[in-house]
Amino acid sequence: MAVYRSKGIVLRSIRYGEADRILDLYTRDAGLVSAIAKGIRRTRSRFGARLEPLSCVDFVAYHGRTLDTVTQAEVLRSFHGVREDLARFEAAAGMVGSVRALSGGDEADRRVFNLLYNGLDALERGDSGFDSVEAAFGLKLSMLAGYAPQLDDCLSCGFKLNEAPEPLYFAPNHGGVLCPECRTVTGDTFPMPPGTLDRLRILIEHPIRESLSENGPGEGVLRVVRAHVLAHAPGHSISGGVRISGSRRLA
Ligand SMILES: [Zn+2]
To answer: Structural domains in the chain?
Structure first.
């Protein structure tokens, strides 16, 4: 029975039976983990706290065939302020959906854990700009996953996008941008409102906590990021926040 200890952020927490919870966690040391916490909902549970979604916990678990079993957990940050506010929670749900979409599952990446923690921290501390945090998160996560969007040259003709007339066109399935001349070389493109390219670059270049000070990403930015993440999700059928919130908010 291999026992391990890690920090993890609760992506999902569902009731199971009388007193148990099944958790999906993004852990610092083992990537995505599904685990059961037995007896956690009893009044005199040995767990110090309830494992609510978005909580960052320090936990001990042992490996199981399908589910690991959590034996101890201590909440390090509850991110209560994110969970209790709709605008913050929607941005966090988008981030969680992106993690579920882009993480293969078995590879651990501390950078993803840190990015998620810092993104939730920015949402909790900030007063506005939550869409910018979500957009910055999606961009940085896709880069960590090896899917950096191509924002320098036209995907088709190689023309410098800085010198191309707007509007430019985003092609999610090709992970980049087309100049107006080339916009018909592939289907499934959409025009980006003027200034979108610059805003995308700013979000990529700055730490995620600084994205709060961006004056709203503009709906074009979030649309690009969500389409980019979704197009690069291995399964494409994951019922996480990306598809649900994306289709709702882009409609
Ligand atoms: Zn072109």
So the answer is: 3-78 (2.40.50.140), 84-149+188-250 (1.20.1440)
